[in-house]
Amino acid sequence: MRDNVINLQAVLPDGDVVKTGSRARKSAAGYDLTRLIIGSEGTLGVITEVTLRLQKLPSHSVVAMCNFQTVKDAADVAIATMHSGIQVSRVELLDEVQIRAINMANGKSLPEVPTLMFEFIGTEAYALEQTLLVQKIAAEHHGSDFVFVEEPNAKEELWKIRKEALWAGFAMKPDHEAMITDVCVPLSRLAECISVSKQLLDASPLTCLVIAHAGDGNFHTIILFDPTQEEERREAERLNHFMVHTALSMEGTCTGEHGVGTGKMKYLEKE
Amino acid sequence: MRDNVINLQAVLPDGDVVKTGSRARKSAAGYDLTRLIIGSEGTLGVITEVTLRLQKLPSHSVVAMCNFQTVKDAADVAIATMHSGIQVSRVELLDEVQIRAINMANGKSLPEVPTLMFEFIGTEAYALEQTLLVQKIAAEHHGSDFVFVEEPNAKEELWKIRKEALWAGFAMKPDHEAMITDVCVPLSRLAECISVSKQLLDASPLTCLVIAHAGDGNFHTIILFDPTQEEERREAERLNHFMVHTALSMEGTCTGEHGVGTGKMKYLEKE
């Protein structure tokens, strides 16, 4: 998102109103205050206007899905795809717990294994060419059941799986709260980071779902816990803490998207 | 370039050494100090280390060139190309004076008219598909003599025209100095901004060459003047001043790439 913010207007603590830049795509004039204020979470001022860059809707897109036996294989395919230079529009990784949640919430019967979902965009020929290249990469990493669709309704139906993932996760334990955390590591470390994290998550008595923006090296974990049980909250915090430290030890960040707030302030100094 | 900087290390005025971020592709942890320090021209600290994002070399590329009767037509094609969603890797605009300089310096006989040069990258099929789409756009805006090459030596030979443009410009008047300026405007205003600027440049007694990174809305002007003639220096400054104000009036910036230094400090407040 932040790459699509051209400039913004903010009210500073002393009441001054600043506009951070022109509407030009690039500028070497003065400090990049736009990026400084984005993500500053209100500590520098209150954002009151944002100028966004518009993107052309792609003329064509393909949505694809593929199953894997291990989360490592799935992450390896995401890494290999990005490193191949293919300009994939979206690559999302859902672990087997997440797929189970989707099956339960929507009466589906998807194989409950780590799954990758892709979107390829461009001209019709190019979107299809990319799809077939990634199908080949997936096959090289034990991917199975690679399917892709081009028809609008079929694409919408397939993406629904990903779009409703969060709500399906919540629905697994309606009386529970969710601790939602995210970390991000260099892409080359993603498979290792998810694998190490999954070992701990799978061994925990809590139900934990993993969903990753795998092309960015970024993944989210939804940790479901009973808010009336203090030990469950502590267990959720222990898992969160472990994942953050694992990511930091791999030259990653304690949060890729969600921000710091009060929950992750304690990790900033180390990072 | 700045989009490819993942993090950096800088020495602050008090001697503190800071590292601005992790190696993750994205982060929501704390202020974006990387972007704040890039382009700060030494006012915040001295950059001592930079971590760059590597890009995969494209498997194929095509280089193309096309002539136009007016700089407005050429700029309109650059705008239409970018707005079409085609992911052009490079689109460079050279005005007729710049082409004359290249002919003089290299014994070439290129038509001395506004010229666009393109690079398309991707798979072989996709690079060619983009080329043909842009050929069509160029034809719709009175483009002529559209040529494209795919063979490595031929590509290198064609890009040489663009690569040696600056030196060819200097060679036009070896005893002169060059005032090199750059502005950047929203892409939709590029044709108008270059056209208005060209009217003034062409009417000036000084020799002025225009070369644009047209896909960004960014253009450079090389103004050649005799440093022993104070009035020529003043005329160069007048032209520079006019272009900056034209760009600012179009919600652009006084410098897209070159930076502020001491020469453009006076424009920062207005911008």
From TrEMBL, chains A, B:
PROSITE patterns documented for this protein: FAD_PCMH (PS51387)
Gene Ontology BP, a term: lactate catabolic process
Pfam families xrefs: FAD-oxidase_C
Protein name: FAD-binding PCMH-type domain-containing protein
InterPro entries listed in its UniProt record: FAD-bd_oxidored_4_C, FAD-bd_PCMH, FAD-bd_PCMH-like_sf, FAD-bd_PCMH_sub2, FAD-linked_Oxase-like_C
Family named by the database record: Belongs to the FAD-binding oxidoreductase/transferase type 4 family.
A GO molecular-function annotation: D-lactate dehydrogenase (cytochrome) activity
GO cellular component, one term: mitochondrion
Keywords, sorted A to Z: FAD, Flavoprotein, Oxidoreductase
Cofactors (names): FAD
Native source organism of the sequence: Aegilops tauschii subsp. strangulata
Domain FAD-binding PCMH-type: 1-57
Coiled coil: none
